[in-house]
Automatic annotation (TrEMBL), chain A:
Regions that span the bilayer: none
GO molecular function: acyltransferase activity, transferring groups other than amino-acyl groups
Gene source species: Actinomadura syzygii
Domain spans labelled Thiolase C-terminal: 250-388
Name of the molecule in the record: Thiolase domain-containing protein
InterPro entries, per the entry: Thiolase, Thiolase-like, Thiolase_C_2
UniProt xrefs under Pfam families: Thiolase_C_1
Lineage summary: Bacteria, Bacillati, Actinomycetota, Actinomycetes, Streptosporangiales
Length: 391, 140
């Protein structure tokens, strides 16, 4: 048993809303928190560890105001590790470590946002000359530009095509059509994707994730607490983290720090890519998924385009079913951050609670991967291997 | 172009990056070079990202590089560029190593990757000289 096995995921909840104009950000955090503790069979009074990103509203960013708002009076451990959209995956790993160290026993992780009907997080503003890409904002480059530059280079070096990238969106849209809460309900074809308007050539609108309000929460508890609850626990078998930063301007956008976080997670879990039944892969854009699958070792570098063809990612019978809730590409990408929904869908799969049309049979081992920041620059990665209790 | 909105996007000229902008005004690409490990870096930084040395000099560099990637922006993300879409961006790997994002002066419809380019300096919409790139005569 490795150190991670001291803790399990016992509660998970995704907000059903995708447009929440009348709710505050704090309210959404609280609603998902209540949903996740109820799923676990706990109450907020049981929570002694609290984790959220710097995008949480209120005093100084981080956990303080939300702990206050939700009346969390018994906290013995707090963590606001900020790693962009990957943050909740870091939080689950850090919660497991804190529980193993005896620092807390019931950890709550929340994420919420309302970019659809509220204020856009981040964006614009004066450029800081010490950052390569912000320095380039006066050329009209933004976040999507880095993904487009990455896709263009990937196409040049490896022969990847727009149609291959489109296969990723098609799979996500098929999955979303089984999810009554998904933002996009219509199944898309490759033709639909490549004929959607260009956003940043070579990326089309349909290569991008959806913009949604909402959020989600997860509860991680000690083995001792889990034994007192009537909920199927999910094992945290292994985890790995890595950062790939600007490196004095020498960056290669064709790979992500998944090349480092992946092996760390697999090694700790004692499993390999062949053992993985389901993957939740960060999907801000189609190219994000393609590069991460390569970097995690599901195929050779450069072969991602071929790998995703012919329904390989489509549940339940594709070679590697991915993002069966529809993912950020078709279901939900609250706060422009897809980390929490990736964890939640993996938990559903391992518990056999995914939507019936996309439940992977005998799903025993799931991989969750989050990518925070621009693709290739200031990019943070977290990989987690989760397992069904029998695994 | 909405010059007021564009000016908001321009990096502030500070004592630390002044030599870079002076270089642009003089028609010369200047990068910091670490006095200890010898690596060029971009953008400017008070310490070397390789060896953390604080000793560096500003040097005029070749101004040559190759197109590592490019894209064409169709979405209106910035008020300053709302009237400019579609516009092309290039990501250039300088001969000295660092990569720079900018635009081509002679925007070909489809730039060729790994094509040689040279830095040129032109006043932007706000009158500040900025680095852009021009395709070199193809040696092949």
């Amino acid at each position: 048993m490795n150190a991670n096995d001291a803790a399990v995921i016992i509660g998970a909840y995704e907000h059903p809303g995708r447009e929440l104009p009348d709710k505050s950000l704090a309210q959404i955090h609280a609603e998902v928190a209540l949903g996740a503790v109820a799923d676990a069979g706990l109450t907020l009074d049981d929570v002694d560890g609290f984790f959220c990103g710097h995008d949480a509203p209120g005093y100084g960013g981080g956990w303080v105001t939300m702990a206050e708002y939700m009346g969390l009076r018994n906290l013995t451990y707090m963590d606001s590790t900020e790693s962009g959209g990957a943050s909740p995956i870091y939080h689950v790993s850090h919660a497991a470590a804190a529980i193993a160290a005896g620092k807390c026993s019931v950890a709550l992780i929340t994420l919420a946002g309302k970019p659809r009907t509220g204020v856009q997080p981040g964006g614009g503003g004066p450029a800081r000359p010490e950052d390569a890409f912000e320095m380039a904002m006066f050329t009209g480059a933004g976040l999507v530009s880095t993904y487009a530059l990455a896709a263009q280079r990937h196409m040049y070096e490896f022969g990847t095509t727009s149609e291959q990238l489109a296969e990723i969106k098609v799979a996500a849209s098929i999955h979303a059509s089984h999810n009554p809460n998904a933002f996009l309900q219509k199944v898309m074809t490759v033709e639909d994707v490549v004929s959607s308007p260009l956003v940043a050539d070579p990326l089309h609108r349909a290569d991008c994730c959806v913009v949604t309000d909402g959020g989600g929460a997860v509860v991680v508890v000690s083995r001792e607490v889990a034994r007192t609850l009537n909920r199927q626990p999910v094992r945290i078998m292994g985890q790995g983290e890595a950062g790939k930063l600007t490196n004095g301007g020498r960056v290669d956008l064709t790979y992500t720090p998944a090349v480092w976080s992946g092996p760390r997670a697999f090694q700790q879990a004692g499993v390999s890519v062949q053992d993985v039944d389901y993957v939740s892969v960060y999907d801000s854009f189609t190219i994000t998924v393609l590069e991460i699958l390569e970097d995690l070792g599901f195929c050779e570098k450069g072969q991602g385009g071929r790998f995703v063809m012919d329904g390989a990612l489509v549940a339940p019978h594709g070679r590697l079913p991915f993002n069966t809730d529809g993912g950020g590409l078709a279901n939900n990408h609250p706060a422009h951050r897809g980390g929490i929904t990736k964890i939640i869908e993996a938990v559903r799969q391992l518990r056999g609670e995914a939507n019936p049309g996309v439940q992977v049979p005998d799903c025993e081992i799931a991989l969750v991967h989050g990518n925070g920041g621009d693709l290739g620059t200031r990019m943070r990665a977290a990989t987690m291997i989760l397992g069904r209790e029998s695994a | 172009m909405d010059v007021a909105a564009y000016t908001e996007l321009l990096p502030e000229i500070t004592p630390t990056n002044q030599p870079f902008w002076d270089g642009c005004a003089a028609g010369e690409l200047r990068l910091q070079k670490c006095a200890d490990c010898g690596r060029h870096r971009f953008p400017d930084s008070p310490v070397c990202p390789e060896c953390l040395s604080g000793a560096a000099s500003w040097e005029a560099v070749s101004g040559t590089g190759t197109i590592w990637s490019w894209c064409t922006m169709h979405q209106k993300y910035f008020a300053a560029f709302a009237d400019e879409v579609p516009y092309q961006l290039v990501y250039v790997r300088l001969a000295e190593g660092p990569l720079v994002i900018s635009t081509l002066t002679d925007g070909s419809p489809e730039p060729r990757l790994d094509q040689p380019v040279r830095a040129v300096f032109q006043p932007d919409g706000a009158g500040r000289a900025v680095v852009r790139f021009s395709a070199e005569a193809d040696p092949r």
